[in-house]
Write a structure and sequence with these properties.
Blueprint (H helix, E strand, L loop, with lengths): L5 E2 L4 E4 L37 E4 L12 E4 L12 E4 L4 H6 L19
Antiparallel strand pairs: 1-2, 2-4, 3-4, 3-5
Length: about 120
């Protein structure tokens, strides 16, 4: 039921703010999370922000990354070394390209392909 609170053409989409379930709080979307930071960030140059990269969003300190994550719509080397990339879209980039602010995340699937990206 979470909504994409950020959808920048030719850059990223972002989801994971608990407040995005409430349309009356749209002005506050993107400011919240689960309240439980992960506390550690594995930032490596081996996992790059290529088109379809999935990474943990944060507001400046990677240790404060929480529940928000992003998907890049294009190669974004300017993000390399600043965010933990933990996955990659293997199928469905056409859907990523269509997502707009306010669209609901209905389902996502994970596949263990870590060694391949």
């Amino acid at each position: 039921g979470l909504r994409f609170h950020r959808a920048e053409p030719n850059f990223v989409i972002q989801v994971g703010d608990q407040m995005s379930r409430d349309m009356s709080r749209i002005d506050y979307w993107g400011r919240g999370g689960s309240g439980t930071p992960i506390g550690i960030a594995e930032i490596t140059k081996k996992r790059r922000n290529v088109a379809g990269a999935v990474g943990m969003a944060h507001t400046g300190d990677p240790k404060l990354a929480d529940s928000q994550f992003y998907i890049t719509r294009r190669n974004a080397p300017e993000l390399d070394g600043k965010y933990t990339v933990f996955g990659k879209v293997l199928k469905g980039m056409d859907v990523v390209a269509k997502i707009q602010k306010g669209d609901v995340l209905k389902r996502a699937y994970l596949k263990d392909e870590a060694a391949k990206f």
